[in-house]
Amino acid sequence: MLKEAIAVFDIGKTNKKLLIYDQDFNVIDQKSIHLQEIEDEDGEPCEDLDLLLLWMVSSFSEKLQSSEYKIIALNFSCYGASLVHLDAQGNRVGTFYNYLKPTSADFYQKLYDKYGGEEVFAAKTASPILQFLNSGLQPYWIKYNRSNQWEQISTSLHFPQYLHYRFTKQLATDLTSIGCHTGLWDFEKDDYHSWVSDEGLNFPPIQNNKHTCAIQKTLAPHDIKVGIGIHDSTSSMQPYTTIIKGAPFVLISTGTWAINMNPSFSGQLTSEMLKNDCLLNINTDGKKILSSRYMLGRVHDVYAQFLKKEFELEKEIYDVVSYDEELLLEAWDRINASQTIIKNLMAYTAEELKISLPENKSVAFLYLQIMLELTLKEIEQVKEVMEEDCVVL
């Protein structure tokens, strides 16, 4: 008899994975891929959603043929701040925009001013002002900049729930996606902010995160329960809330973003915390998670690629550089003397890179000092969410 298994698509900004778990949550099979981005109509990079879906369906179909296990459940963990829009027939409308797509900050000012100004808007929605990273502002931007698309939109789904829809044809909204720096949720009244209905945005009904639907019969030869998906940072929290059993802790979830999360936070999100890139997320049980963010993985890659090109390396720099305590201590001395290499710790693209290379230093030394500088920046963000007695995981 085949062992029963659970399939989870873990869709990150950089890496896409299909993980197969047994009933004890051990990974017994997996498949992964890195997909190249395409360009949207403005020439900005964005996810190739059609290619991703093709890979997901073919990979899932492959795993359904296993002679060792039988998949009985499926769920999705995806990066946030990304919306897919559907017309009345359930067809995708427009582009799956990248949350880093540059838009004019001035464009949104009319919206902020109507609802009390930027500071009030940020406080109510428990998120810094982030343009497209406030995913609710994406359909707002479409309404006034892509009117032909806006007129076709019947409903909008966050990324995990869109994948749920593609495997079930059932529409749902999940709180962990809505409550993730979207600008959509009023944390004071625990409901959508009034601007959402005022501007005519439409989302499917909110479902409990434990809600499941049946998979489309065309995608599987037997019944499979499909979850509605979860925001990836919040998903990383779930095992620890069970293991720790109420003890205070801060979880650091790394990837393209380093997200530092404190699920036991009981205070108030202040304007100063918002300025320091702190926000509130909503957990699966509806409770608030204090989080701080730093785009650690992306900034690391920007500077790592610069060094690779500068020193004409054939391999990635982290494949050729090893830990060297002597070099690290030397880097410490330079940093303590304010001799930093990175001059823009928020360089998300090569164009934003600012660097000052000391003379006659090896690539190993440069990389170790850069890693140290990035680590110190991340420590600052961890301190933003730390409270007394918290354990860092």
TrEMBL record:
Pfam families named among the record's database cross-references: FGGY_C_2, FGGY_N
Carbohydrate kinase FGGY N-terminal domain span: 7-194
Domain Carbohydrate kinase FGGY C-terminal: start-end pairs: 247-385
Keywords: Kinase, Transferase
GO MF term set: kinase activity
InterPro entries with a match to the protein in the record: ATPase_NBD, FGGY_C_2, FGGY_Carb_Kinase, FGGY_N
Keyword Zinc: no
GO process annotations (BP): carbohydrate metabolic process
Similarity comment: Belongs to the FGGY kinase family.
Protein name: Carbohydrate kinase
Species per Swiss-Prot/TrEMBL record: Flammeovirga aprica JL-4
